[in-house]
Amino acid sequence: MNTRELKARIEEMVDVIKEKDPAIRSNIEVILYPSFWAVINHRIAHSFYKKKHYFIARAISQISRGLTGIEIHPGAQIGKRFFIDHGMGVVIGETAEIGDNVMLYHGVTLGGTGKDKIKRHPTVGDNVLIGAETIVLGPITIGSNTKIGAGSVVLEDIPANVTAVGSPTKIVRKDGMRIKPTDPSEFTKAKKHAV
């Protein structure tokens, strides 16, 4: 990552934080946000990771974790305009892929299953919101324009344009319309048809 790219990412983070957090009063406050440092440090660590400088990448990510309480593996691929609100306890694994304009709240885990050196962490589409204390495990996909409610446990693919909540997750909205199933199997039908 060169200086110009880093400057662009910093400006992007300032804009995203100002847009997403109504509590911010000035641009300079951004430097007080743990998510600002976690994401910027990840961008730097990821650039070393892509060049196969794994030790340097891991050192940056581990120092950042200690300073911010947010753990992002340097191998994770993260799109533009990514924001973590109240970031304590967020964990993002090595093979996680996150699209553009994604927002996570505190305590979110994008975790892996197994110890194989393959894709084992979630893929998150664009324009996704994942609520506080949500656990998303395995090489599953969360579709674009989706919201996952706080405290959910996601173990299966979630289609695009839905709101899903609970443990196990159930789809409660599709394209902004509330789903009112007559029995629990309707949630499964809605999930299959929403893809």
Automatic annotation (TrEMBL):
GO terms for molecular function: serine O-acetyltransferase activity. Pfam families: Hexapep. Its EC number is 2.3.1.30. It comes from the Bacteria. It catalyses: L-serine + acetyl-CoA = O-acetyl-L-serine + CoA. It is an enzyme of class 2 (transferase). One of its GO terms (biological process) is cysteine biosynthetic process from serine. NCBIfam families: cysE, EPS_EpsC. This is Serine acetyltransferase. It comes from Anaerotignum lactatifermentans.
